[in-house]
Amino acid sequence: MLCLERRMLGLVGFIGSDLHATSGRLLRCTLRSSTVQQTSGSTHHPQRAWLSSQAPLCGHHTPKHRTRLYGPFTHPQQTLGSSRGPFSLPLFTQRVALSQGPNTSTAKIRLRTRLVVTLLFGGGLLGTWWYVRNEKQQNHRMQRIEQLKKVALGQGDFSLLDHRGHRRTKRDFLGSWVLLYFGFTHCPDICPDELDKISAVVSALDKDRSLPAVQPLFVTVDPERDNVAALERYVKDFHPRLIGLTGTPEEVKVAGKDYRVYASPGPKDEDGDYIVDHTILIYLVNPDGLFLDYYNRMKDDVQIAESIRNHMKSYVKL
Amino acid sequence: MSAPNSNQRKACWGARDELWKCLDDNQDNAASCEKFQKEFEASCPAQWVKYFTKRRDFLKYKEKMQTEGFEPADGPKESQS
What we know:
Chain B: InterPro entries: COA6, COX6B-like, CX6/COA6-like_sf. Chain A is α+β, with helices and mostly antiparallel strands.
């Protein structure tokens, strides 16, 4: 009984194009049955009786097992006409078997064609999806750049003195990635915290040799007190590449305005000391001098470093 | 008067933290923390003392808002014309 089911399954399986396995199953099935028949000699079982009549086929068609698949059905008249007693296959499998015809090479071609066509189609779909996805990402990037251009921060040019007394303009920093922070040296806690954060970010990015070096800049919002000497004392507590920038009140104002930095000196006490209230943001500027991103107090050094890495990667791609 | 350098900043912050811990332990009873208050005022510029004091007040206020909730103020009255 099991062998019979297998043969039926085998036929159905073939229709589903699982050619080798089913023909293999049929081969084993047929061989086993014929062996059993030969050893037992009994012909009571109707299945075995029928199979034993096919025995001659088992012997010599090993390489062409596909032919054997059709073995019992290559002569349709024989199949339908012959009386097989209680044993008979369901009608649909007979019909389908007949419709396949005797030509096995067509079946081979048909299967191969099917496979090739499926692969091509699948590959085509995948390729299309990939292409569309890349297009979308590119569009997003362009949109973002357009938005930033509209905001147009940092379009102007600044001219300031660095903490060694050399004049620096914005042009001097083109070609490098810049992290810009506005603050003042008399700042109680926020500026040191933010500058420590920037130092940590730059150090982390320095470790990756494949990335370009980031230039940290500290621009004062308190030019009255933060002269070159004051800046020199201040910046040496942070990353060695940190450059402090100062100038006349007008020059500093121009730089601040460029980045829409708010700065407001508070009331002076009896020492003449005062605190400057100011925007607390770190600005990222790309090598083209284009403002790309900003980071507030909530972002920690790991997040900022990650964000800069992403900007660098997409910059290169563009 | 030049700005505090890194060591001076750290000393000031340390004194501030000590003071604040004392105040937290004593339910903001300034009298019991006089020693720390003096230390704090000595380590930090006057402006910073003022700044940090205000900061503490703000942080306490914020904590109060977050734990006790608040009554939103009445909005602007409807037009009276």
